Amino acid sequence: MKEELEIKYMPSSFSARLMDNWHPYTQDNKYANECVEKFDEFLIGCSTLNKKGEAQILYKFRAGLRDDLQIELLVEKAMS
C-alpha cells in the first residue's frame, strides 16, 4: 500500500531534489551528531531509493565529514 501511495502522490523529481539538497552538505564546523541527525532526516526522505541510491547516499555522507572522521570510519570498517 505504501509503495502504491508513493508512486501515485510523490513527484518523480523528489529523489533528485533530495540529492541536490544533500550534495553540497558538509560537516564544516558542525558536531558529528548534527551531521548524523541531518543524514537521518535525508535518509528517511530517500527511503524510496533502490540499493544503488542508498550506496550513493552513504558515500556522500562519508565524503561530507571531516578527514579525521572519514579515517575513523574506514578504520572501524576494516576492524569489523
Observed structural traits:
about 80 residues; mainly alpha
Give a short synopsis of this structure:
The chain is mainly alpha-helical. It is built from five helices and no strands.
Structural overview:
The protein is built from five helices and no strands. It has 80 residues and is mainly α. It has one domain (14-79). The radius of gyration is 15 Å and the shape is elongated.
Number of helices: 5
**3D shape:** elongated
Helix content: over 70%
pLDDT averaged residue by residue:
75
Secondary structure layout:
Blueprint: H1 2-9, H2 14-22, H3 32-45, H4 51-64, H5 67-79
